[in-house]
Every structure is written in structure tokens, then in C-alpha cells.
Amino acid sequence: MSRRKWMAVVSLAGLFLGVYLTLYHYGLIGTLACNVSSCEKVQSSRWSMFLGLPVATWGAGFYALMLLLTVAGSQPRYEASQGMALTLLLLTGWGVLFTAWLNYLEAFVLHAWCEWCLGSATMVLILFLLAFMDWREQGSEPIEEET
Q: What is the rounded CA–CA span in Å between residue 81 and residue 68?
């Protein structure tokens, strides 16, 4: 399976996670399935909102965008596209930075960890690593000139 197809699989898992946490945030599901008690503390903190929306909703949007781009990028028209590879790298790089900020808040401000958030952080890191490898591969291939 190509890297972009793996990225689509990871993005789909992240989308499900973001939707699950968004449903919890809005009270549409009762409790979080969580092995540590810190999940609810993190999810109900003031840091769980960003620009008027739950961070989980932003995450769901990020993963939905990544799913759309990786499925499109797997099509023959875009599978060798350096522009698509760079777009995926930049978006996942932004995701890593935002996730690092959220993990910093969990560790040093809230003093609590959410295993769902850590799972999402792992998925974002995997997406970044796959995007980086894809970008390097696309950049190392010579560009074919049209004749």
C-alpha cells in the first residue's frame, strides 16, 4: 500500500476519534471510555476550546481534510505531484506543532493526560512522518518534461 493510502487510513481513524470527542464535548455521549481519570479533566478544561469550537472539532476537521487530500493524492493524476507532497507535509507539520502545544498544556498547565489526545498526537506524528517520506521521495524523482 502506498504512503498516501496509509495516510488515508490514519486520517480516517483520526476523524472517528475527533467526532467521538466532539460528541462527548456536546454531551451527546455520556462518558468517555478512558482508562485514566484525566481524560474528562482535559476535555472539560478551558483549553479544550479554540476560537469558539472544541479542539476535538478542529481535530476532526484536520483529519477530514487530510483524508480528502490523501485520497485525492492517491489518484494517478496526483500520485507523483510534488505540490501535493508539499501540501501534505506543510499541513501535517502544522498539525504536529498544534498537537505539541496541546500536549504542553496537558503536561505543564493541566497536569493531566488524556489517552485519546495522546492517541491523536501519535496519529498526527505518523501522518507527518509519512508525509515527510512522501515529500522526500517526490523531490528526489526527476521531473519529466512534456515533449
A: 15
Q: What is the pLDDT of residues 114-131, one digit of tens each?
A: 888 899 999 999 999 999
Q: What angle do CA 102, 107, 109 make, to 5 degrees?
A: 80
Distance CA 25, CA 56 (A): 8
Residue 145 located in a structural domain: no
Range of the domain at 64: 3-140
Spatial contact of 87 and 69, defined as CB atoms under 8 Å apart: yes
Give the CA diameter of the chain. 63
Q: What is the pTM of this model?
A: 0.87
CB contact set of 141 (below 8 Å; sequence gap of 6+): 80
